[in-house]
């Protein structure tokens, strides 16, 4: 039975789509003519966000989906595609933005991510929305809790590369809903009743 806080959480499929959208927006902020420090900040924050996203899918989304989809070709190739993406990320980190091949390698990462996200959005997410209807919000809440843990393990990396590239604001709104901290916010004042004399 979903709790009140998990019902308030965005669904896991909405969160996954939002992560994909943010990754795509980050790719589009990268320009070959940008200074090296900006390229590196975009690459670092995009790669950290992609690694966290992939881990969350592998720990929470794919197992839930496997329980209802069984042997599915798209689901079966999803984790290996994450590993290909991780390998490209490791090559980027080892290379550095001053290398002439850096731009092309980041574009390769973009192609891999777009291809992978398209499979998820056209096959896996619709399948989840059909087969996991009653669990989508509690899975979303689990994903947010786990995301907070993972972000907490790499605070310096996220803080250093956040400027304009990481979807912190939208994530924090979801996290507040899941963790039920909205009661900490100042309440709107009730209108004063006119005194009747
Ligand atoms: Fe994925
Ligand atoms: Fe994904």
UniProtKB/TrEMBL annotation:
Transmembrane recorded as keyword? yes
Q: What is this protein called?
A: Anaerobic glycerol-3-phosphate dehydrogenase
What Gene3D superfamilies does the record point to? nmb1532 protein domain like
Q: Does the keyword Membrane apply?
A: yes
Annotated transmembrane regions = 164-185
Name the domain of life this protein comes from. Answer: Bacteria
Question: Per the database record, which ranges form the Hemerythrin-like domain?
Answer: 12-128
- Tell me which Pfam families the record gives: Hemerythrin
Which CDD domains does the annotation name? Hr-like (cd12108)
InterPro entries, alphabetized: Hemerythrin-like
**What does the organism's lineage look like at the top?**
Bacteria, Pseudomonadati, Pseudomonadota, Betaproteobacteria, Burkholderiales
Q: Which organism is it from?
A: Paraburkholderia terricola
Keyword field: Membrane, Transmembrane, Transmembrane helix
């Amino acid at each position: 039975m979903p709790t009140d806080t998990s019902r308030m959480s965005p669904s896991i499929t909405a969160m996954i789509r939002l992560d994909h959208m943010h990754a795509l927006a980050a790719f589009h902020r990268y320009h070959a003519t940008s200074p090296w420090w900006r390229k590196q900040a975009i690459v670092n924050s995009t790669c950290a966000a992609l690694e966290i996203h992939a881990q969350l899918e592998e720990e929470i989304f794919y197992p839930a989906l496997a329980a209802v989809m069984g042997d599915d070709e798209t689901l079966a190739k999803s984790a290996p595609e994450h590993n290909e993406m991780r390998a490209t990320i490791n090559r980027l980190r080892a290379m550095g933005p001053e290398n002439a091949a850096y731009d092309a390698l980041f574009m390769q990462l973009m192609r891999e991510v777009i291809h992978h996200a398209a499979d998820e959005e056209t096959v896996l997410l619709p399948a989840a929305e059909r087969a996991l209807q009653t669990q989508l919000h509690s899975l979303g809440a689990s994903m947010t809790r786990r995301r907070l843990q993972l972000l907490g393990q790499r605070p310096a990396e996220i803080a250093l590369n956040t400027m304009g590239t990481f979807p912190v604001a939208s994530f924090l709104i979801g996290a507040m809903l899941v963790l039920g901290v909205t009661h900490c916010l100042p309440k709107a004042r009730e209108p004063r009743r006119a005194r009747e004399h």
